[in-house]
Amino acid sequence: MVQKYQSPVRIYKYPFELVMAAYEKRFPTCPQIPVFLGSEVVFESRSADGAVHVVERSCRLRVEAPRLLRKIAGVEHVVFVQRNVLNWKERTLRIEAHNETFASRVVVRENCSYTVHPENEEWTCFEQSASLDIRSFFGFESALEKIAMKQYTANVKRGKEVIEHYLNELLSQGISHIPRWTPASVREEDACSQAVLGDPGSLDVHGPGSAQGPAEEVVGAEGDKLDADYIERCLGHLTPMQESCLIQLRHWLQETHKGKIPKDQHILRFLRARDFHLDKAREMLCQSLSWRKQHQVDLLLQTWHPPALLEEFYAGGWHYQDIDGRPLYILRLGHMDTKGLMKAVGEEALLQHVLSVNEEGQKRCEGNTRQFGRPISSWTCLVDLEGLNMRHLWRPGVKALLRMIEVVEDHYPETLGRLLIVRAPRVFPVLWTLISPFINENTRQKFLIYSGSNYPGGLVDYLDKDVIPDFLGGECLCNVPEGGLVPKSLYLMEEDQEHAEQLHEWRETYQPACVLRGAPHEVAVEILEGESVITWDFDILRGDAVFSLCYAKQAPKLGPREPGARVSGQLMDKGETLGADYSPVEAPLICREGESIQGSHVTRWPGIYLLRWQVHDPPGNVTEDALTALHSPGPRCKLLYYYEVLASEDFRGSMSSLESCTSRFSQLSAATSSSSSSQSHSSSLVSR
């Protein structure tokens, strides 16, 4: 694979002739570049009028590589041939270089140019590009590629510093101006050229009063080119290779995508999301651009008007900025009725709202960049989990959350600078274990959790005191909606075709069950290791039921079945008794018709656990046996249920994160240290 490098446009606020005088001081040796051992001229020619000067040099570079690699290669230095074409009339210098050593195994090509700035003829532009093609190198191709690219990028930076060094040297000698080339007789021009290239002290000199510092500066990008100062000022510090990836991807977009291309900040986010792997970033960005065009996302902020219900019950909004100048978004997730919102406005409307928040976030980042005069490309999210409970584990709600996470990860990468979680309850590790596998590792490292009660004390490292919200003990009035339960009267009707399709899709997540009197419905769940988590979510569609969770001391006889098949029905024999053959680990819960129940249980032992539903008999009713129930007209209770087992390793990591963050913000850990509690944690919640 050919590796390529492309520099941004670097600009020196000095005339071309003065920069050329500084450049020539690099030869034949340059102490400022230790790997440059020296050079000699192998060919030189001039045009008749002296306007064009061509020089070819043989340059020796020391090999900085592990001793073993140098020994195998059998060389201590490599030879490059450099060809310079200096045109005084056009005020350009074109440089081409290639390697002679190992030319059959490795091909290195470099092209550089010094030109006059298109908007200011007293300034000089510099551009550089290179390619590396390692065809074969004694089995060390990958190692050589890494070493070569590392050294090359280091020498790029060093080359810039060398020009600045020699410019300062010329200025210290009182040389700040060199006359431009003018047509003259061949002999006079030769003498003038020799003076310029050979003895800077003989040049016409003016006082240093008009001299400017040698730092690079840029006024604006020329056409499709980016300049170094713009990158530093608007995009932040990038390494030479990162700059090169940005320029190459931007140039490719200009060639292949007609019309408007994304802003540089947007392109850079995709490069960062793929660790500046150019091909992977290009693929990810192209897919995102197609998605934006298909869904007209560029017009979202102008076309999306959230329903009044969302504005009232969606507990999220923008609130000033954090201590680093990032826009701050507050989400009171624990106060938000996600199930009610989805049933009232639908999943698609919620997704549209989340997308509009991300679009607004990018817009606010650009505004803060202008306001604070430094690059700000991401925002901070403060998530308050007070009120989070099992209601938030409603399965379609979790699936919708995972879908939104996937969309944001794919199309808004590297927009989240930091996520602060406060007031996390004991149920939070269950939710985190469910969603964390779907969050990119780079994003996951930005999640910080704080479960202590001194919220202002914990937040001051990230927020100024005067913006800490009042509901967290601060003094700043926060206008983010408080959320709350969405009235059922606002739910969409099933007659709504679009909503009916969504309801059907939600129900496909669940398994149906009919419960007869005297014939409970039981689901066997095999747990392989203690401290795993069983989660459940079910809706009572008809009748009343009693739900319980039991631990079977002996595995029930399940009969032949396909591997991984769901085992359900009446599994316990009628002769088995409570206490002797099985024991309840979750208190019986009476569930009424129309209610939705979510819950979880942290297991203490491996083995078989039974999720158990039986018909609820009011006091005084005579319980029918299963045979009588079979001849009764229809089922006594009907339900839809879903369950899932969370791995012990993942849950223990989430628990240890929660338990270690009571006095400060801590990163959410994927560690597997044991939970400090050996007791089973269990809970069920009726959400409606």
Would you give an account of this structure?
The chain is α+β, with helices and mostly antiparallel strands and 688 residues long. The protein folds into 4 domains: 172 residues, Alpha-D-Glucose-1,6-Bisphosphate, Chain A, domain 4, CATH 3.30.530.20; 51 residues, Orthogonal Bundle (Helicase, Ruva Protein, domain 3), CATH 1.10.8.20; 191 residues, 3-Layer(aba) Sandwich (Phosphatidylinositol Transfer Protein Sec14p); 116 residues, GOLD domain (Jelly Rolls, Sandwich), CATH 2.60.120.680. It contains 19 helices and 24 strands. The strands form 4 sheets. Strands 1, 2, 3, 4, 5, 6, 7 and 8 form an 8-stranded antiparallel beta sheet that branches. β5 and β6 form a beta hairpin. The chain is elongated and about 115 Å long. About 8% of the residues have low confidence.
Q: What descriptors fit this protein?
A:
688 residues, alpha+beta, Alpha-D-Glucose-1,6-Bisphosphate, Chain A, domain 4, Helicase, Ruva Protein, domain 3, Phosphatidylinositol Transfer Protein Sec14p, eight-stranded antiparallel beta sheet, six-stranded mixed beta sheet, 19 helices, 24 strands, 32% helix, elongated, SEC14/CRAL-TRIO_domain, CRAL-TRIO_dom_sf
What would you say about this model in short?
With 688 residues, the protein is α+β, with helices and mostly antiparallel strands. It has four domains: 2-173, START domain (Alpha-D-Glucose-1,6-Bisphosphate, Chain A, domain 4), CATH 3.30.530; 245-295, Helicase, Ruva Protein, domain 3, CATH 1.10.8.20; 298-488, CRAL-TRIO lipid binding domain (Phosphatidylinositol Transfer Protein Sec14p, 3-Layer(aba) Sandwich); 508-555 and 579-617 and 635-663, Jelly Rolls (Sandwich). Helix content is 32%, strand content 25%.
